[in-house]
Write a structure and sequence with these properties.
With about 45 residues, the chain is an all-alpha fold. The chain has helices spanning about 5-20, 20-25, 30-45.
């Protein structure tokens, strides 16, 4: 079973690889908001 933390890490890798500027810009957000953005970005990238 995959943990929530592992899922967020996977989302982080997706945004790191596919959009370095988004990754850099969103890295200044508070952690909970940053993870949410990573998740939404990864979802949109996958769909």
């Amino acid at each position: 079973m995959v943990t929530v933390q592992e899922s967020y890490s996977h989302c982080e890798e997706i945004i790191k690889v596919h959009s370095k500027t988004f990754y850099k810009a969103f890295s200044y957000l508070p952690e909970d908001k940053r993870r949410a953005v990573w998740a939404v970005y990864s979802f949109c990238r996958t769909v």
